[in-house]
Amino acid sequence: MLVLFETSGGFALFKVLDEGKLSNVEDLGTEFYSAESARRMGLHKFLKNNCDDGEILAVADPKLGDIITEKLDIECVHNDAVMELLRGVRSQLTELLSGLDDNDLAPVSLELSHILARYKLKITSDKVETMIILSISLLDDLDKELNTYTTSVCELYGLHFPELANIVQDNILYAKVVKLMGNRINAATLDFSEILADEVEAELKEASMVSTRTEVSDLDLMHIQELCDQVLSIAEDKTLLCDDLKNKMNKIAPNLTALVGELVGARLISHCGSLWNLSKLPWSTIQILGAEKTLYKALKTKQATPKYGLIYHAPLVRQAAPENKGKIARSLAAKSALAIRCDAFGNGQDNTMGVESRLKLEARLRNLEGGDLGACEEEEEVNDKDTKKEADDEEEPKTEECSKKRKKEAELETVEDPAKKSKQEGVTGLLLLMLLISLIYFFSVNQLLW
Amino acid sequence: MTVEGVNPKAYPLADSQLSITILDLVQQATNYKQLKKGANEATKTLNRGISEFIVMAADTEPLEILLHLPLLAEDKVFEFLLIVSLSYESQLVVSLALASFTGFTWVSSSYDKKIRLYWLLDSSFEIVIVDNVPYVFVPSKQALGRACDVTRPVIACSVTSNEASQLKSQIQHLKDAIEKLLI
């Protein structure tokens, strides 16, 4: 009988000398002398080379035994005696296998346990959203810093050459022009063709000769140009960060990126903390993520709830007409929820679902905005359905928040009951008064007759 | 029904007999207004804690669009603080405290649920009752749509709780049957 033993470093095959007692196990010379040969050899070839016909193989896992029997025609056995035998082998493993000791076995076991745990939890180490969350925060910070610096450049250089702000509108081009030109007197002799168009360049040179503002000193000019270097450097960093974010989003959430773009997708993931948390939300929550303050204010004052949050900046919502933004935002949120779940739970890098959903939404957008006269009735029906759906969606959040208000209303109803009772008493009094007047009138008439 | 083409991620998958029972109960829940249709509304019922069990269709394409429901169903935890008083609760608290120190999960016959005791830093404690919502896959979304009285296929639905409902015993039996699939 042979015994197949599984270790974290590979497989081992032992021969049982005395099957009756199941003792005196002996090494068959199947040590793995080098890691290279061990790594290349698979279980199939290993068993085929070492098992003779008619041998019985003892295995620890009955399912593995069934597979071995099916593919290699080796009879396998699995029972309590085999388990006891394997336990004994495990306790003496370092002695039975020459060239192997506990210090070598520990890191291999640790690596195997990590791989097994990662497989069980279905965590892929390259799908980590922390970089995305930090990248989108850094992108926002760079935006603010860039705005501050460009405003400073315009203010400082405006003292010297105020017409330039009207001629060159773009901040980055403005910084490049200032850096190249320096003093405005130099504008007449310099060549701006690499930065500006011909008409703008001619206009710039004309304005530089007729400007009547103060002169700028060399020290101030040096400071302004250093500030321009800062602006251009930050703009370059921002461009690199955008490209990097695009690559990461296409890797982690390809369907969501195809639908709403990498910036909006990154903001959604950043808002929820991870793609895993984002996948657990219903699409009505995804539609108004980023507008929580407005939502709670609307619920408290019983006004209209918001139609979009972060999703407003998606390209599909931005290119829609104002009256259609709400409908497109709702459809986009529904498709985005499905795309997010595909990204979170699917293992592939396939973005087919996102691309198809985007095509459907674009077709719907064209259908909404390009209204034919013949389709007016259909549009009206669609609008009615959408209005009803919106009402249904708005009702559900209110029910959650209005439970306290309902209690207050119940208290108010109990307070109103005495008012009703007092009204009823008033009515009864009035009837009694009318009856009394009738009686008095009757007696008066009788007295006149008498 | 072709069993070979079923996605292996659709687990636990009901066999034909249990599927008929599930769809029949789903239809009755529709009549009693105890059903929420669609993956979105099922998500909301799980978040609000009013779901008895979740039924999902195994032939959804792609199946990932409803794999968040098992996560939410297994993640449902009800927490509350227990106030110490000289009564039956006091004895229960002492027992729970002993169980907490030994590190075991206490299963109390009174509550019939798994209870864990967390000793907080301010000498009070928090009791967590872990109550998973059962979920099950049925082979066909068309059949699930018909059971929900909807002309279109339905990929997920949730039977909600109602203490006064006549379906209470049937729901309990079906929940037990669903949990047997996981053994």
TrEMBL record, chain B:
Residue span(s) of domain Ribosomal protein eL8/eL30/eS12/Gadd45: 23-76, 132-166
GO molecular function: RNA binding
InterPro entries with a match to the protein in the record: eL8/uL1-like, H/ACA_rnp_Nhp2-like, Ribosomal_eL30-like_sf, Ribosomal_eL8/eL30/eS12/Gad45, Ribosomal_eL8/Nhp2
A Pfam cross-reference name: Ribosomal_L7Ae
UniProt-annotated location(s): Nucleus, Nucleolus
Entry's Gene Ontology cellular component terms: box C/D methylation guide snoRNP complex; nucleolus; nucleus; precatalytic spliceosome; ribosome; small-subunit processome; U4/U6 x U5 tri-snRNP complex
UniProt keyword list: Nucleus, Ribonucleoprotein, Ribosomal protein, RNA-binding
Principal location: nucleus
Biological processes, Gene Ontology terms: maturation of SSU-rRNA; mRNA splicing, via spliceosome
SUPFAM superfamilies recorded: L30e-like
Entry's family note: Belongs to the eukaryotic ribosomal protein eL8 family.
Function according to Swiss-Prot or TrEMBL: Common component of the spliceosome and rRNA processing machinery.
PANTHER family: RIBOSOMAL PROTEIN L7AE FAMILY MEMBER
Name the record gives this protein: Ribosomal protein L7Ae/L30e/S12e/Gadd45 family protein
Organism from which the protein derives: Arabidopsis thaliana
